[in-house]
Design a protein that fits this description.
PAS-assoc_C, elongated, single chain, Alpha-Beta Plaits, nucleotidyltransferase, Rev_trsase/Diguanyl_cyclase, diguanylate cyclase, EC 2.7.7.65, alpha+beta, Beta-Lactamase, 5-stranded antiparallel sheet, binds guanosine-5'-triphosphate
């Protein structure tokens, strides 16, 4: 641009508009949205990609400020960012979730630069917008996959153990009680063998949903393995943990899941319980596991305390 970053505001408007069709063609050719504003924050112009992006023709844009175009919350963010750039001229880059004028949500990355007039005073800003909605969607998908189990939507083992470890360290510092349950669905192989793997999957979702409904919001429920779940009960001593474990076991045993039109199947849980008594985390998990093994040996469908 021959603007030399140093034009008077009025010169700039003239330069960009009819006297400079080539410049307009140039910016219109750019596939990313570009806009420019004066020092008061009024739009001086934009390219075609920006018109499409905000879904507004440039005639309706020029001369207006953000408060006349967007909701106040978004306008406040834009105005504050513009003000900061005018006060500290140079470059500015930030990401923001926005709503278009037609109400679509987009994630965007702004690259803004200030420009000065012939007296070297800041005369306005030029902004370029990169639509990073797809990139954000993929990022969120990756985080979701890395955090949750695809089938049940519960925390997966890796992320679950991270959170259990964090809570363990916190409980150690604050001396709050906490208890750990290992829960395993009884004879689950039979479900697969008798009804097929898809029904088995549906059953795991059903069981996870049911457990989610029994536990409290602050508890951490993890799909630990195939048909095995870990539950960390926060601020819960052994007596209360036993009650909660019995509730999980009882609620699951009394419910049935529909299979096909006429059949209903039910499930039971074996549960091992261990409570924090200053043992290290791996030891606590091992104890709950040992108690689960004991519950399986005692004919299943029961809770054993280590
Ligand atoms: N459908 C389905 N089945 C799974 C999944 N993960 C594990 N399983 C099945 O769970 C069954 C576990 O079997 P076992 O370890 O023998 O235990 P069990 O039959 O539950 O018997 P007990 O634990 O001793 O009561 C196996 O048949 C696995 O294939 C899954 O994601 N979907």
């Amino acid at each position: 641009m021959n603007m030399d970053n140093s034009l008077l505001n009025s010169e700039l408007i003239t330069f960009i508009s009819s006297n400079s069709p080539l410049l307009q063609v140039l910016v219109d050719t750019m596939p990313v949205p570009i806009f420019y504003k004066d020092r008061k924050g009024c739009y001086l112009g934009c390219n075609r990609a920006f018109e499409e992006f905000i879904e507004l023709p440039r005639d309706e844009l020029i001369g207006r400020n953000v408060y006349q175009l967007y909701d106040k919350e978004l306008a406040d963010v834009y105005a504050a960012a513009d003000r900061e750039l005018m006060e500290k001229p140079g470059k500015q880059v930030y990401e923001k979730q926005i709503r278009t004028l037609k109400g679509l949500t987009r994630f965007v990355k702004f690259h803004k630069t200030s420009f000065v007039d012939s007296q070297q005073n800041v005369a306005g800003i030029i902004g370029i917008i990169f639509d990073i909605t797809e990139q954000k969607r993929l990022e969120m998908q990756l985080v979701r996959h890395a955090t949750y189990d695809d089938l049940t939507g519960l925390l997966n083992r890796r992320e679950g153990l991270n959170r259990v470890s964090e809570r363990y360290e916190l409980a150690k510092r604050t001396a709050e009680p906490f208890s750990l349950l290992m829960m395993d669905v009884d004879h689950f192989k039979r479900v697969n063998d008798q009804h097929g793997h898809l029904v088995g999957d549906k059953a795991l979702k059903f069981i996870a949903e049911l457990l989610r409904g029994v536990i409290r919001q602050e508890d951490i429920l993890i799909r630990y393995g195939g048909e095995e779940f870990m539950l960390l009960l926060i601020n819960v001593d052994e007596a209360l943990a036993l009650e909660l474990a019995e509730s999980c076991r009882f609620e699951l045993a009394r419910r049935t899941m529909k299979v096909g039109k006429h059949q209903e199947i039910s499930f039971t849980l074996s549960i091992g319980l261990s409570s924090y008594r200053e043992q290290v985390l791996t030891e606590l998990i091992h104890e709950a596991d040992t108690a689960l093994y004991e519950a399986k040996n005692r004919n299943r469908n029961n809770v054993c305390i280590y």
